[in-house]
Write a structure and sequence with these properties.
CATH superfamily of the largest domain: Nitrogenase molybdenum iron protein domain
Structural class: alpha/beta
Number of helices: 11
Radius of gyration: 32 Å
Largest sheet: 4 strands, parallel
CATH architecture of the largest domain: 3-Layer(aba) Sandwich
Helix content: 40-55%
Distance between the termini: 113 Å
Length: 381
């Protein structure tokens, strides 16, 4: 039997110190190696490609990838043409009126890094151009879609004399200087008597008494056919920023154009059986939609400036047997009040039309259009 070896106390202490030193060295090695080990366990992002073993944080899209758009209907089409190749930002929050909008500081900061702006044009969203000029860090190109879409003229009953003169003074004459695309006149007229659209050449014709014709109407986005016409300019402008991706933009625009064509046929078919065809409007921004649905706008509340005007307008609408009064969802102003009063006097329904969309139940252009059709059908069929 081997006797047990006795170890002195000093030797035990030296062994314990040695073990402690080895343990501390092990812990230190783990601590040094931990960050690398943890990083390797994280999933890689798209920024990792071509960089072996390195992990980079996902950075915001560079300024060259950002496109700013003024209103939601146009924004919806632009983002669908752009796909994931651009960051498309909306300047006008849903539910806000277009005219006279003032962007917030946060929106201005977002616009500052955009390389391209896409607007309606003709002073409808003039604030957008001004915001881009004031916020942009460099000169930015702005596309006005009214330069690329065939425009109708305001109807005879859609503007007062003062509004007609102001409209020509603000943007009518300037439009004629560049309102051609591929040699075609971009201004059209609407014949409310026959319900047909006809051309007005270059728009310089005056009546025999030298009265200027009604000015062009910039609210083209309420008509799916005009929106389809705008897709070419949208795809082209994006293609100029990313030439290699031009075919992809054109393909997406072609698919959207086909969808808008089907949408146009759908709403025309839905409106076909409607028995009531005469309406009144709160503002002068529903002409394209009325034309597409073959409705006649017998009067507009915005033209009634005085109490006498409102009385005269009410009598005219009663004689015309206007079946409904249409108001714009974002226009909660004096025109809406007049429209509401007219509807009450005539005993006609007040139909709220959403021209902009962007809300939960109208997060696509076509959904906004179809929601308006359902509301109109309830009052006019």
């Amino acid at each position: 039997m081997v006797p047990a070896q006795r170890i002195s106390a000093p030797k035990v202490m030296r062994c314990m110190e040695s073990e402690m030193r080895r343990g501390l060295l092990f812990i230190f090695a783990l601590a040094v190696g931990a960050p690398a080990s943890c990083e390797r366990s994280r999933p890689k992002t798209g920024a990792d490609s071509g960089n072996k073993g390195a992990v980079q944080q996902v950075r915001p899209a560079p300024a060259a990838s950002r496109v700013a758009v003024s209103i939601f209907p146009v924004y919806d089409l632009v983002r669908r043409v752009a796909g994931s190749d651009f960051e498309v930002v909306l300047a006008l929050p849903p539910g806000q009126p277009v005219v006279g909008h003032r962007p917030t500081a946060a929106v201005l900061q977002t616009l500052a890094s955009a390389q391209l702006g896409i607007a309606v044009g003709m002073d409808v969203d003039a604030w957008f151009d001004q915001a881009l000029r004031s916020a942009a860090k460099q000169r930015i190109r702005v596309i006005h879609l009214t330069d690329h879409v065939t425009l109708r003229r305001y109807g005879e009953r859609e503007l007062s004399d003062a509004q007609r003169k102001n409209a020509w003074h603000e943007h009518g004459d300037g439009l004629h200087q560049h309102a051609h695309d591929r040699g075609k006149a971009m201004i059209r007229g609407y014949d409310h008597v026959h319900g047909t659209v006809h051309g007005h050449g270059h728009g310089h014709e005056h009546a025999q008494d030298d009265e200027p014709p009604p000015p062009p109407d910039p609210h083209f986005w309420t008509d799916p056919a005009r929106m389809a016409d705008a897709l070419g300019a949208i795809a082209s402008s994006l293609g100029q920023l990313r030439p290699a991706l031009r075919p992809a933009f054109e393909q997406r625009a072609a698919r959207l154009s086909a969808m808008l064509g089907r949408l146009r046929q759908t709403i025309e078919g839905a409106a076909g059986p409607w028995r009531k065809r005469t309406v009144a409007a709160g503002r002068s921004d529903l002409g394209y939609l009325a034309d597409r649905l073959r409705l006649t706008i017998a009067g507009v509340a915005a033209t009634a400036v005085s109490a006498h005007d409102r009385h005269h307008l009410g009598r005219r609408l009663q004689r015309a047997k206007a079946a409904a009064v249409l108001t714009t969802a974002t226009a909660h102003d004096s025109n809406s009040e007049v429209a509401t009063a007219l509807a009450g006097e005539m005993g006609a329904p007040l139909v709220e039309v959403d021209l902009l969309g962007g809300t939960t139940d109208s997060d696509r252009y076509e959904r906004t259009v179809m929601r308006n059709i359902r509301r109109l059908a309830h009052a006019l069929r």
